[in-house]
Amino acid sequence: MQNFVDQLIQELSAQSYLELVAVVLALFYVFLAARQNSWCWPCALVSTAIYSYLFWEVTLPFHVLLNGYYIVMAIYGWRQWRGPSSQVLEVSSWRGKPHLLCITLLIVGGLLLSKAASSIFDEQYLYLDAFITVFSVFTTVLVAHKVRENWLYWIIIDGASAYLFFAKGLVLTSLLFVLYTFFAIYAYMQWGKDSSGNKITMVES
After folding, report:
1. C-alpha dihedral over 120, 123, 124, 125, to 10 degrees?
2. How distant is the alpha carbon of residue 127 from its chain centre?
3. Model's pTM, two decimal places?
4. Would you say residue 197 lies in a domain?
5. Domain range holding 141?
Protein backbone atom coordinates (compact mmCIF):
# COMPACT_ATOMS: atom_id res chain seq x y z
CA MET A 1 0.00 0.00 0.00
CA GLN A 2 2.84 2.37 0.88
CA ASN A 3 4.48 1.71 -2.47
CA PHE A 4 1.24 2.61 -4.24
CA VAL A 5 0.93 5.87 -2.28
CA ASP A 6 4.57 6.77 -3.00
CA GLN A 7 4.07 6.05 -6.70
CA LEU A 8 0.89 8.15 -6.74
CA ILE A 9 2.64 11.12 -5.10
CA GLN A 10 5.59 10.83 -7.47
CA GLU A 11 3.37 10.72 -10.56
CA LEU A 12 1.18 13.57 -9.34
CA SER A 13 4.24 15.78 -8.94
CA ALA A 14 5.18 15.06 -12.55
CA GLN A 15 1.84 16.17 -14.00
CA SER A 16 1.77 19.23 -16.22
CA TYR A 17 0.03 22.50 -15.43
CA LEU A 18 -1.79 22.09 -18.73
CA GLU A 19 -3.38 18.87 -17.49
CA LEU A 20 -4.31 20.61 -14.23
CA VAL A 21 -6.17 23.34 -16.14
CA ALA A 22 -7.99 20.70 -18.18
CA VAL A 23 -8.98 18.81 -15.01
CA VAL A 24 -10.32 21.94 -13.26
CA LEU A 25 -12.40 22.94 -16.29
CA ALA A 26 -13.66 19.36 -16.66
CA LEU A 27 -14.81 19.39 -13.03
CA PHE A 28 -16.65 22.64 -13.64
CA TYR A 29 -18.24 21.03 -16.70
CA VAL A 30 -19.66 18.01 -14.92
CA PHE A 31 -20.81 20.03 -11.88
CA LEU A 32 -22.60 22.57 -14.05
CA ALA A 33 -24.06 19.80 -16.25
CA ALA A 34 -25.46 18.09 -13.15
CA ARG A 35 -27.13 21.40 -12.26
CA GLN A 36 -28.42 21.76 -15.86
CA ASN A 37 -26.43 24.98 -16.29
CA SER A 38 -25.64 25.64 -19.96
CA TRP A 39 -22.28 27.21 -19.07
CA CYS A 40 -21.00 23.66 -18.68
CA TRP A 41 -20.48 23.58 -22.46
CA PRO A 42 -17.87 26.40 -22.71
CA CYS A 43 -15.94 24.66 -19.91
CA ALA A 44 -16.10 21.43 -21.90
CA LEU A 45 -14.92 23.19 -25.06
CA VAL A 46 -11.67 24.45 -23.54
CA SER A 47 -11.01 21.33 -21.47
CA THR A 48 -11.42 18.97 -24.41
CA ALA A 49 -9.22 21.12 -26.64
CA ILE A 50 -6.40 20.71 -24.09
CA TYR A 51 -7.04 16.98 -23.77
CA SER A 52 -6.86 16.51 -27.54
CA TYR A 53 -3.22 17.57 -27.31
CA LEU A 54 -2.47 15.56 -24.13
CA PHE A 55 -3.91 12.32 -25.50
CA TRP A 56 -1.90 12.68 -28.69
CA GLU A 57 1.23 12.91 -26.55
CA VAL A 58 0.48 9.56 -24.81
CA THR A 59 -0.70 7.69 -27.94
CA LEU A 60 -4.42 7.36 -27.32
CA PRO A 61 -5.56 7.90 -30.93
CA PHE A 62 -9.24 7.22 -30.38
CA HIS A 63 -9.32 9.65 -27.47
CA VAL A 64 -7.77 12.34 -29.67
CA LEU A 65 -10.62 11.85 -32.15
CA LEU A 66 -13.13 11.63 -29.30
CA ASN A 67 -12.06 14.97 -27.89
CA GLY A 68 -12.24 16.54 -31.33
CA TYR A 69 -15.83 15.29 -31.39
CA TYR A 70 -16.39 16.72 -27.89
CA ILE A 71 -15.35 20.15 -29.15
CA VAL A 72 -18.07 20.01 -31.82
CA MET A 73 -20.61 18.65 -29.32
CA ALA A 74 -19.79 21.43 -26.84
CA ILE A 75 -21.02 23.93 -29.43
CA TYR A 76 -24.04 21.74 -30.30
CA GLY A 77 -24.89 21.15 -26.63
CA TRP A 78 -24.72 24.88 -25.90
CA ARG A 79 -27.22 25.57 -28.70
CA GLN A 80 -29.50 22.70 -27.61
CA TRP A 81 -29.58 23.68 -23.96
CA ARG A 82 -30.07 27.37 -24.66
CA GLY A 83 -32.86 26.61 -27.13
CA PRO A 84 -34.82 29.11 -29.23
CA SER A 85 -35.18 32.41 -27.37
CA SER A 86 -33.25 30.87 -24.44
CA GLN A 87 -36.11 28.41 -23.78
CA VAL A 88 -34.96 25.70 -21.35
CA LEU A 89 -34.69 22.15 -22.70
CA GLU A 90 -36.54 19.70 -20.43
CA VAL A 91 -35.15 16.39 -19.16
CA SER A 92 -36.57 13.27 -20.84
CA SER A 93 -36.14 9.56 -20.20
CA TRP A 94 -35.76 6.40 -22.30
CA ARG A 95 -36.88 2.95 -21.24
CA GLY A 96 -36.18 -0.58 -22.36
CA LYS A 97 -35.67 -1.43 -26.02
CA PRO A 98 -33.90 1.76 -27.22
CA HIS A 99 -31.11 1.18 -24.69
CA LEU A 100 -30.79 -2.53 -25.51
CA LEU A 101 -30.58 -1.81 -29.25
CA CYS A 102 -28.05 1.01 -28.81
CA ILE A 103 -25.82 -1.02 -26.47
CA THR A 104 -25.76 -3.93 -28.93
CA LEU A 105 -24.84 -1.66 -31.83
CA LEU A 106 -22.18 0.11 -29.76
CA ILE A 107 -20.52 -3.18 -28.76
CA VAL A 108 -20.39 -4.25 -32.41
CA GLY A 109 -19.04 -0.82 -33.35
CA GLY A 110 -16.34 -1.00 -30.68
CA LEU A 111 -15.21 -4.42 -31.88
CA LEU A 112 -15.06 -3.31 -35.52
CA LEU A 113 -13.21 -0.11 -34.67
CA SER A 114 -10.58 -1.80 -32.52
CA LYS A 115 -10.12 -4.58 -35.08
CA ALA A 116 -9.56 -2.07 -37.89
CA ALA A 117 -7.14 0.00 -35.83
CA SER A 118 -5.11 -3.00 -34.65
CA SER A 119 -3.46 -3.14 -38.08
CA ILE A 120 -2.19 0.43 -37.58
CA PHE A 121 -1.53 0.72 -33.84
CA ASP A 122 0.25 -1.85 -31.68
CA GLU A 123 -1.12 -0.68 -28.37
CA GLN A 124 -1.97 -2.70 -25.25
CA TYR A 125 -5.10 -0.69 -24.41
CA LEU A 126 -6.44 -0.27 -27.93
CA TYR A 127 -9.64 -2.26 -27.33
CA LEU A 128 -10.48 -0.38 -24.14
CA ASP A 129 -9.70 2.92 -25.87
CA ALA A 130 -12.06 1.99 -28.72
CA PHE A 131 -14.96 0.89 -26.51
CA ILE A 132 -14.73 3.99 -24.31
CA THR A 133 -14.69 6.16 -27.43
CA VAL A 134 -17.71 4.53 -29.09
CA PHE A 135 -19.85 4.62 -25.96
CA SER A 136 -18.77 8.19 -25.14
CA VAL A 137 -19.79 9.44 -28.59
CA PHE A 138 -23.29 8.04 -28.12
CA THR A 139 -23.63 9.15 -24.50
CA THR A 140 -22.60 12.73 -25.28
CA VAL A 141 -25.56 12.95 -27.67
CA LEU A 142 -27.82 11.84 -24.80
CA VAL A 143 -26.38 14.63 -22.63
CA ALA A 144 -26.97 17.24 -25.33
CA HIS A 145 -30.62 16.13 -25.58
CA LYS A 146 -30.98 15.84 -21.78
CA VAL A 147 -31.84 12.14 -21.71
CA ARG A 148 -31.55 11.26 -18.02
CA GLU A 149 -30.04 7.78 -18.51
CA ASN A 150 -26.89 9.28 -19.99
CA TRP A 151 -25.51 9.37 -16.43
CA LEU A 152 -25.89 5.60 -16.04
CA TYR A 153 -23.71 5.13 -19.12
CA TRP A 154 -21.18 7.61 -17.76
CA ILE A 155 -20.81 5.68 -14.50
CA ILE A 156 -19.43 2.71 -16.45
CA ILE A 157 -17.48 4.80 -18.96
CA ASP A 158 -15.86 6.93 -16.27
CA GLY A 159 -14.78 3.90 -14.22
CA ALA A 160 -13.14 2.30 -17.26
CA SER A 161 -11.53 5.63 -18.22
CA ALA A 162 -10.05 6.08 -14.74
CA TYR A 163 -8.26 2.75 -15.10
CA LEU A 164 -7.05 3.52 -18.64
CA PHE A 165 -5.64 6.95 -17.79
CA PHE A 166 -3.86 5.70 -14.67
CA ALA A 167 -2.26 2.97 -16.76
CA LYS A 168 -1.10 5.63 -19.26
CA GLY A 169 0.43 7.84 -16.53
CA LEU A 170 -2.23 10.59 -16.58
CA VAL A 171 -2.79 10.40 -12.83
CA LEU A 172 -4.68 13.68 -12.38
CA THR A 173 -7.00 12.73 -15.22
CA SER A 174 -7.49 9.29 -13.68
CA LEU A 175 -8.50 10.89 -10.38
CA LEU A 176 -10.78 13.23 -12.31
CA PHE A 177 -12.65 10.28 -13.78
CA VAL A 178 -13.01 8.69 -10.35
CA LEU A 179 -14.70 11.93 -9.27
CA TYR A 180 -16.74 11.87 -12.49
CA THR A 181 -18.17 8.51 -11.43
CA PHE A 182 -19.57 10.01 -8.24
CA PHE A 183 -20.74 13.13 -10.06
CA ALA A 184 -22.63 10.90 -12.51
CA ILE A 185 -24.51 9.27 -9.62
CA TYR A 186 -25.32 12.72 -8.21
CA ALA A 187 -26.39 14.03 -11.62
CA TYR A 188 -28.67 11.05 -12.26
CA MET A 189 -30.52 11.83 -9.04
CA GLN A 190 -30.63 15.55 -9.83
CA TRP A 191 -32.01 14.97 -13.30
CA GLY A 192 -34.79 12.88 -11.75
CA LYS A 193 -36.37 16.12 -10.60
CA ASP A 194 -37.78 19.03 -12.55
CA SER A 195 -36.97 22.66 -11.82
CA SER A 196 -39.58 22.65 -9.02
CA GLY A 197 -37.92 19.75 -7.28
CA ASN A 198 -40.56 17.21 -8.36
CA LYS A 199 -39.79 13.90 -10.06
CA ILE A 200 -39.93 14.07 -13.86
CA THR A 201 -42.47 12.05 -15.79
CA MET A 202 -40.89 8.94 -17.32
CA VAL A 203 -41.72 8.53 -20.98
CA GLU A 204 -41.32 5.71 -23.47
CA SER A 205 -39.00 6.37 -26.42
Report:
1. -90
2. 17
3. 0.78
4. no
5. 2-84+94-190
